[in-house]
Design brief:
Largest sheet: 6 strands, antiparallel
Number of helices: 9
CATH class of the largest domain: Alpha Beta
Helix content: 40-55%
Distance between the termini: 21 Å
Order of helices and strands: HHHHHHHHEEEEEEH
Strand content: 15-25%
CATH architecture of the largest domain: 3-Layer(aba) Sandwich
Radius of gyration: 20 Å
Number of strands: 6
Shape: globular
Strand order of the largest sheet: 1-2-3-6-5-4
Structural class: alpha+beta
CATH topology of the largest domain: Protein Transport Mog1p, Chain A
Length: 257
């Protein structure tokens, strides 16, 4: 598809199935960013895809009867055919989960907020986000290091293929930096909120596809809240305790699609 034409249903299906090259994915994401209703439908489709994966994983790990597991696998394989409606896939996913005795709110509502789970080790990109936050704080403390307060989501997306969220009007950007990572550039944005809190917004391609709800953790020297949409993961980090990062993360996430 060209830069200006509307993506076909086949293009959207290929996007959901992670079958497009980076340039094509960027064009799809740009179109979705300008069409919220279509973006919501695609994100729901992504959520169903993740639900099916979670269901299959649970079936593999459970003591379900062999015929139940086989039927679930056949159903999941059939659902990979992109002619099936999204609603039918969601119903099928729910039936799989019911048959396995494994219905969980997080699986059926992948976009809802999660409670802080201190026992869950955060993904590696959260550690990268914390390190980027520390580096940005150090940079801001050095007069010799010129900082830029210009936050340009369009420019960042064009340069890195990372879609950045819109920021609340009372937040002030202190600096924007690009860091290297294993799967391409990452983006570190240093921010002061309307209440004077110093936080960082970190975005990176972690190298895998997922749709994860907002989660949070308290580390030794920082707090972080993170989520992932498709191939891009995000984290909000602060060294200040009680910064209510879960709320801030939900606010930022809601602006993406």
């Amino acid at each position: 598809m060209s830069d200006t034409e509307t993506p076909l249903e086949a293009d959207l299906n290929a996007y959901v199935d992670n079958q497009l090259d980076l340039e094509s994915r960027l064009r799809i994401e740009d179109h979705l960013a300008r069409n919220p209703e279509l973006a919501a439908r695609v994100m729901a489709d992504l959520g169903v895809r993740t639900t099916l994966k979670l269901a299959m994983r649970s079936l593999d790990e459970s003591a379900a009867r062999p015929e139940t597991r086989d039927a679930a696998r056949r159903l999941s394989a059939g659902l990979e055919g992109r002619q099936t409606f999204v609603a039918a896939r969601r119903v099928a996913a729910i039936l799989i989960l019911v048959s396995a005795g494994w219905i969980a709110n997080n699986a059926l509502n992948p976009f809802g907020p999660n409670a802080v789970n201190a026992s869950t080790h955060p993904p590696s990109f959260v550690e990268q986000a914390v390190e980027a936050h520390k580096t940005a704080e150090l940079r801001l403390s050095m007069p010799s290091q010129a900082a830029t307060g210009q936050y340009d989501p369009d420019g960042i997306r064009a340069a890195t293929a990372i879609v950045m969220p819109d920021l609340p009007n009372d937040w002030t950007v202190k600096d924007v930096e690009i860091f290297p990572s294993d799967f391409g550039p990452s983006v570190e944005t240093s921010i002061t909120t309307g209440k004077g809190e110093r936080i960082s917004l970190f975005a990176v391609r972690p190298g895998h596809f997922a749709v994860d709800a907002v989660q949070a953790t308290a580390l030794t020297d920082a707090e972080a809240a993170w989520w992932q949409i498709g191939e891009v993961a995000y984290a909000v980090v602060s060294a200040e305790r009680g910064a209510k990062l879960m709320e801030k993360a939900e606010t930022l996430k809601s602006t993406l699609y």
